[in-house]
Amino acid sequence: MRYLAAKTAGEAAAALAAEPGLTRILAGGTDVLVQLKSGLVEPALIVDIKQIPGIAEIVAEDGGYRIGAAVPNAVLGEHAGVVAMWPGVVEGANLIGSTQVQGRCTMVGNLCNGSPAGDAVPGLIAANAVARIVGPNGQRDLPVADIPTGPGKTSLAKGEVITSVFLPARPARASDAYLRFIPRTEMDIAVASAAVSLELNADDTVKAARVVLGAVAPTVIVAEEAGRICVGSKLDEATLARMAAACEAVAKPIDDKRGTVAFRTKTAGTLAKRAALTAYTRAGGTK
Amino acid sequence: MAFDEYQKREFKQVGKRVRRPDGVDKVTGRAMYGADATAPGMLWARILRSPHAHARIRSIDTSAAMALKGVRAVLTGADLPDQEDVFIRDVQNNCMAKDKVLYDGHAVAAVAAVDIATAKAALKLIKVDYEILPHVTDVDKAMAPGAPVVLDGRSLESVPAGMSANVTEHAEFGHGDLGAGFAKADMVLERSYKTPTAHQGYIEPHAALASVTSDGKAELWCCTQGQFYVRTLCAAIMGMEASQLRVTASEIGGGFGGKTTVFIEPVALALARKAGRPVKLVMNRDEVFRATGPTVHSSMDVKIGMTKDGRITAAEAKLRYSGGAFPSGTHSFGAQAAFAAYDLAAVRSYSWNVLTNRPKEAAYRAPGAPQAIYAVEATIDELCQHFGLDPLDVRLKNAARKGTKSSYGPTFPDIGLVATLEAAKAHPHYSAPLEPGQGRGISCGFWFNFGGNSCVSLNINTDGTVGVTEGNPDIGGSRASISLMAAEELGIDYDRVRTIVADTSSLGYNDVTDGSRVTFAVGLATIKAARDAVRVMCERAAKIWGIDADAVEWKDGAAVPAGPNAGKFPPMTLAEIAAVSFETGGPIAGHHEVNVDGAGVSFGVHIVDIEVDKETGATKVLRYTVFQDAGKAVHPSYVEGQMQGGAVQGIGWALNEEYIYGEDGRLQNPTFLDYRVPVASDLPMIDTVILEIPNPGHPYGVRGVGETGIVPPLAAITNAVCRSAGVRMHELPMSPPRVLKALSA
């Protein structure tokens, strides 16, 4: 097993592209080190990206924020600007692991891990976040929603490295929220989760809504219809019930040790309702 | 009997919340746990484990592993002797399979190599040819005729004819006329329950370092609850004399009963003997879950008759326990404990042990009692709900007390159940109002407690300090408690006493730290060892004063003349006598060796408030209070810690903890991520109320307190959840998917 601390994203991409064996990218290492220790993977090459200039920084850009791939979630949680603009994204990221893990883990790592239960991912997709990718053939931008393709799988090509995610600007009367269900209160993985991002009209009705569900399909999924149902309402009970039903309709979970199909389906709708109400309040909506 | 030991006294040391002796070491990282032991030239070992729930081992080819550079020894079951004694054979086969693997994770081979990476690589080179056999992991399925047979020919004569060969044992307890009793009831309720396998969840994985010399002497350092029992088992497996094997217990990071037997220790010794080098073997968490000793899982039927004013007229329980792949006697503890809290005219409990393809059960706090008492206490609660009766009043109406012939035979001496129930009823928690949608549950709990073989040596140092040597690993504050009792008896300050845990060559045999026995039994031996030392010190004072030894008595830490006729001498303190001991006959010590009887039974009552989220099935524990009879709380903080710890483990068992087996018979959740013990943020502070009803069998009235605390939570939580949810559930854990399903039914 070789270890490379890349000095530039290009160097990282080139090394990863050139390695014929299994590779892993190391940022916080909260997934990779666990996989190594348990013998789940035995990579030929590990590329540490933390020394790449700027990769651990949060930068204001076009009214939004660009968050480096090696920004630990604890640092993200202390960034007043991001917290104010995208509280749902941050609360999802800050639910991962424990306090100690928060000091190391990153949103991009959570995204690249490819788990449908990743807590940082639904919020990013609800926010229409865009990933910046450096590969052997240069740089490209891709919506975060297009990155996960299945459990443990992403659409990234060999050698491609995500260097940052961009959270776009948003109007004043807009906010988001994330909720997950776990049997405990912490130190756990989502059995079902929901992120909701809302924009309100001046009359407190919903102008735009994006509802995203986690742990109920092979990837995090966008519940398009659930979002459409919210538009024009003040999230009255009848609307929320329809919205929850729309979430249940698109949920395609599995039975496993963490939960049943019936439980995950119902809970995804319940969480979406509750997250929508929180986002609505955060956006300044009153009923 | 030993029920005349207790003498009322004013305590000067016992009852103080003194500083714990192991605290500094533990918080600064100095404490030497199992995995901290090292030896020169040490090798590292790893174990190859079966991926199958049940398979015959056709052959094992270790040649490629042996040929790997850095490998010093490879061990399989074929390297271990054929044991005559069936119990030792089971223990050995559980540590290393011989002909068949009996559960997912069962050890089939082990490697010792110069480093862990080499040992791991060698495991991959071992070829095991398995003939996969049908498996069974559920107790009811294993009991059915035609079920795959885990081990044949193991049924004892007590098992009724015609049952599956998996049924190894049967027990029955009780008295009175059940038919007549049920006929007197206004309602007879029959319910069936299931409880999952739970693991003790100790933080420290098993670890051992073994060294065997070419002249046959061996040293073993390991994390255990009983170094003497480890010696017994390992000496038998290794074919060694006890004197040639010295076992030293490390500091222990939790045991709860799970470290009362051996899993890796004989493997480390056998590898060390084969390799001619010290061998270190440390389990990882996956191995701890798959291949140590979790609890039985159970399936139970309970039938209780009650009058409309709450008198239980008859009660019956049928308990089907599976202790995993080898015979287990834990079912009998369940059958004895089921109705122990009640004074019943007609009562019967039946129990069976059933083999399944799961790891062999080991003890876990009050083994066998939580399951049975859960089923009984949940059924009583349902009857209370049916009749609209106060659940504490119903318990008080039926409570066992002094003179009650218990459901398992003995007649109770002084016991604390009624006082405990009354304390619960009078406590502000019980009368605090509940919000709509919240539920309050209560349950009684019981455990027998144990005494057993205990040896203590107590040395009076010439500077006036005292060293106590005892032989039980400290899993719950025993060093502090033993020091307190020694100080009390000698009349000196706690800070003058230091207690250490000796290895097996330094002291006579001590039973395992189990049965909540150490503070009680080793405490008793300590008090008597101190009295022995006091006798010697009085003799020395008499010698100095030139009077008869029986004219000297011990008072407030000093020898004094027994009365005016003995002569006028100023008191000689312990320190003064110790300082001149070399001139008065030599070093002074006391010792005591005994098989202690008279462990007082212990009762507890728990109250819990719960709120169920009706949309998700999530439960929130709002308030929890434990009431328990400690006899005498030697160190109240440790007693409270035991009560809280037991409650928390029981809460986890009730709500989320379970072994989940797939159709393939493999354990699906051998991690702390998916085997969910409660985390600190899940729970409120567990409030505690210590009752002190002296145990007549101990000089200071001490009862064991370590186990009873895990018994009530299963039913207390069930009763609270069911009252909050408005629906009765009969299977643990009440995980959110199960609760939501019950709510939607």
Instruction: Work out the number of β strands of chain A.
Output: 14
How many separate domains of chain B?
3
Report how far the terminal alpha carbons of chain B are from each other. 55 Å
Supply the helix-strand structural class of chain A: alpha+beta
Distance between the termini of chain A: 59 Å
Which CATH C-level class of the largest domain in chain A is it? Answer: Alpha Beta
Largest protein interface, residues of each chain:
A-B, 21 and 24 residues
Estimate the global geometry of chain A from the Cα principal axes.
globular
The major β-sheet of chain B equals:
7 strands, mixed
Residue stretches of chain A low in confidence (pLDDT < 50, at least 5 long) are: none
Gross CATH architecture of the largest domain in chain B: 2-Layer Sandwich
User: Gyration radius of chain A, to the nearest Å?
Assistant: 19 Å
Any overview of this molecule?
The complex is a heterodimer of chains A (287) and B (745). Chain A has 287 residues and is an alpha+beta fold. Chain A has helices at 9-18, 32-37, 73-77, 80-85, 87-93, 99-102, 107-112, 121-126, 224-230, 237-250, 261-282; strands at residues 2-5, 23-26, 45-48, 58-61, 64-68, 130-135, 138-143, 148-150, 153-154, 161-167, 174-181, 192-200, 206-214, 221-222. Chain A has 2 domains: 2-43 and 56-167, Uridine Diphospho-n-acetylenolpyruvylglucosamine Reductase, domain 3, CATH 3.30.465; 174-282, Enolase-like, domain 1 (2-Layer Sandwich). In chain A, a hairpin with a 2-residue loop joins strand 4 (58-61) and strand 5. The radius of gyration of chain A is 19 Å and the shape is globular. Chain B is α+β, with helices and mostly antiparallel strands and 745 residues long. Chain B folds into 3 domains: 23-31 and 451-596, Aldehyde Oxidoreductase, domain 4 (2-Layer Sandwich), CATH 3.30.365; 34-134 and 213-283, Aldehyde oxidase/xanthine dehydrogenase, a/b hammerhead (Aldehyde Oxidoreductase, domain 3); 297-449 and 600-744, Aldehyde Oxidoreductase, domain 4. In chain B, 28% of the residues lie in helices and 24% in strands. In chain B, helix 15 runs parallel beside helix 16. The mean pLDDT of chain B is 97. Classes of the chains: A alpha+beta (287), B alpha+beta (745).
